[in-house]
Amino acid sequence: MSRPTCSRCQRPLGHCLCPLIPDLESRTRVLILQHPSEVGHALNTARLAALGLRNAELRVGEVFADLPQLLAQPDYRACLLFPGEEAVALTGYASKEKPLLLVVPDGTWRKARKLLHLNPSLMALPRVSLSAAAPSRYRLRKAPAEGALSTIEAITAALDVLEAPLGFDALLRPFDALIEGQIAAMGDEVFIRNHQR
């Protein structure tokens, strides 16, 4: 028997995160492309990011047939937030007049790369990356590489760069509560044994 869940944040009603989710405005438009394997994940940070930003959209799938139309918005310059040799530091985009459409793939690194491979429109976008982000607060997962962030952390860091002096740390409130709740549920001993190495 499944527990009743909040229809908005998809958390069990006793652990609803909605009171912590902000309602933030941004000049930057954020398009999150989520791999289907992430939808049911207990720590679905992409959903939290989309809920906390007015100018954000979350799409779920592997192949996005309407992606060329989504990317061809005349009021925005589209770019892909994804590291790689051809990626340029996001700081170079902060002062441009036309706001960005920041496309963010969401999934494991392998699944995110698959999204890029299956959607050639993504591969054609200019690629940007975060030059210096704070260490991840995602204490329940071992980062695959130094500087790796969860989707909500990457979006927050990107918006902090693009929309300075405005800050978007409020976006991380439900994420922090979610992490703390997961740690409390597993107990300190289990958390220390499995995640503090």
Strand and helix layout:
Layout: E1 29-34, H1 45-52, E2 56-60, H2 67-71, E3 77-81, E4 88-89, E5 100-106, H3 109-118, H4 120-123, E6 127-129, H5 151-162, H6 173-186, H7 188-195
Parallel strand pairs: 1-2, 1-5, 3-5, 3-6, 4-6
EC number: 2.5.1.25
Family: Belongs to the TDD superfamily. DTWD2 family.
GO biological process, one term: tRNA processing
Keywords:
197 residues; Alpha/beta knot; 6-stranded parallel beta sheet; transferase
Q: Provide the succession of SSEs.
A: EHEHEEEHHEHHH
**Helical content, roughly?**
25-40%
What oligomeric assembly is this protein in?
single chain
Shape: globular
Quickly count the helices. 7
Low-confidence residue ranges: none
Integer count of domains: 1
State the major sheet: 6 strands, parallel
End-to-end distance: 35 Å
Q: How are the strands of the biggest sheet laid out side by side? A: 2-1-5-3-6-4
Approximately what portion of the residues adopt beta-strand conformation? Answer: 5-15%
CATH architecture: 3-Layer(aba) Sandwich
Organism: Pseudomonas chaetocerotis
InterPro entries: DTW, DTWD2/TAPT
EC number: 2.5.1.25
Protein name: tRNA-uridine aminocarboxypropyltransferase
